[in-house]
Amino acid sequence: MTEFFNQISRRKFIFAAGASASAVFLKGCLGNPPENLTGGSTKAQPTAQSVANISSEQAPETTTVKLGYIPIVEAAPLIIAKEKGFFAKYGMTNVDLSKQASWGSARDNVEIGSAGGGIDGGQWQMPMPHLITEGLITKGNQKIPMYVLCQLITHGNGIAIANKHQGKGISLQLAGAKSLLKESKSSTPFTAAFTFPHVNQDLWIRYWLAAGGLDPDADVKLLTVPAAQTVANMKTGTMDAFSTGDPWPYRLVQDKIGYLAALTAEIWKNHPEEYLAMRGDWVDKNPKATKAILKGIMEAQQWLDNFDNRKEAAQILAGRNYFNLPSPEILADPYQGKYDMGDGRKIDDKSMAAYYWKDGKGNVSYPYKSHDLWFIVENVRWGFLPKDYVDNNAAKARELINKVNREDIWKEAAKEAGIAVADIPTNTSRGVEEFFDGIKFDPEKPEEYLKSLKIKKVSI
């Protein structure tokens, strides 16, 4: 167990993760601006679509489940599956989507489960399900087995920078700003923030900084900032950067708070983002209901990837019960791959948009074990997990992944739903991945990947 997990108290962790019940609902490092303080859960509503003629072999053991979500575009498959009747189509007629105040709140709620007033699972940054399974971020280090069931989305994120840094060379490539940031560390260090440590948003910032020759733990100041403080800190100048996801880049640029130095689609094209994961005991008790949930999500993901449907999707997501946006137009451009980066650069490229079912490398929904491995290897890279997770060709990491990643259930659900054979991956690895700095991650050689990285905490 790492020093971080041994030393940090639960109270401090909840605060650090922004788990206050009054927290702004956010994505990674930025969520709804402070004026959007609505909460509660959205109960399952009657759907106009009838339940499909389900055979007794596929009929779910229960029609009820409670899934947590954070109001950002990663949650769209859950919301669309409910609103368009796709959950009900497969027999899940009582899906309760529960808006979570923060990632810390989601973690707390999955600990107690729906029986205790919490949730059965939902949307997660990675590798939160693995850390919960290992008891590394739970109360009393209790091990709560979780199952990763599908990937929800690719893309839809970026690195936001305060406007005061315009023209200083802080962009995707940091070569021009490296010396400036290093020199400032002794007086006024460049401060980058996120809302939950050791997962997607933290890892995107760290990879970007390290690729530019900056040590995230030595050359800049990294903070875990409670949700309600992110926008205020950027406005007052006490925070220089943070991870942000759609729909908030539009707000950042329009409100002249900041600009986008890079999209994560530029850092790692077609990268894994957030996932559906559930308590293992719920899945074990309700295997047919689990597959019914997956079928509904798969259908929603395909519906979302029809760009003709995205105007309607934006209207649904922007609603008061979900994102509570002042206008669905905030989602419209990013959903078409159009980004005003706020520094004079504009992107109009559909391949950079969020995708839910298929992207340039194939299936998005299928949970590749090789992607789980990258997230765990990055945790080892920065000293969040001990090196023994990657020893012997990552034997310990692979053992954990095999327990948590239930791609077999995804395949069963896909076959029952009639998904084309060509859309069902035959290998649990997506193969070699390449990042914007030319570094490659070969899941068959994780130790070589670590050795190739110049900036890291682990000795290898």
TrEMBL record:
Main location: membrane
InterPro entries: NrtA/CpmA_ABC-bd_dom, TAT_signal
Keyword Membrane: yes
Keyword Transport: yes
Compartment list: Cell inner membrane
Annotated GO CC locations: plasma membrane
Domain of life: Bacteria
Similarity comment text for this entry: Belongs to the CmpA/NrtA family.
Protein name according to UniProt: Bicarbonate transport system substrate-binding protein
Organism expressing this protein natively: Nostoc punctiforme (strain ATCC 29133 / PCC 73102)
Taxonomy of the source species: Bacteria, Bacillati, Cyanobacteriota, Cyanophyceae, Nostocales
